[in-house]
Amino acid sequence: xxxxxxxxTNVLIAASAAMAMRSGRPLLPHHIEVTxxxxxxxxxxxxxxxxxxxxxxxxxxxxAGLINVEYHHKLDFYDYGIQVVMLKLSRExxxxxxxxxxxxxxxxxxxxxxxxxxxxxxxKMVAAAIAALQLPGSSAIAFAGDTDWYDWxxxxxQTGLTLEPIIETWSRAKYAEKTLRQAKKHHxxxxxxxxxxxxxxQGLKS
Length: 206
Fold this sequence. Notes:
With 206 residues, this protein is α/β, with parallel strands linked by helices. It has one domain (4-171). The chain has ten helices and five strands; from the N terminus they run βαααβααβααβααβα. It has a five-stranded parallel sheet, with helices on both faces.
């Protein structure tokens, strides 16, 4: 465990879904829609969050409170993920950092990250992680099923940030699948035009 973490909201949702299944409680809509759907992977996320809750590691939040607002907006009050946040608050195991926001309420990140981090909601997480680098000790962004973090991995690492993929084998495999789909989609129109170009002379000759 690092000394402190910025925790992606997906981690809290995934762990909450796993805890609900483990406890035999009904699944809420955001549990059912969570990524990943694999129960074994969700259990790994839950185990990580339990370890985090029991550790001395600190949770990074922004002074404006918008990260915590997102947590409460996307999770239920009784979700395990929210209970962990409240536990850290009660133990004062929280590091609050300054994050600047634009007029639309999106976190402001330095260039070139503003051109790289396309998920506007995650920019406040990135900005908080950058601010946390000024604190003593180690820190990381923990994430689970959201593979967008791999899109930005190189740029984030160059900024000095550390990523901690909780289910790395699963998430890197899913990211590779997504990258392959995007590559095929990108090349399909050109390929289709080539086929059409090849067929057109034959049609003219007939």
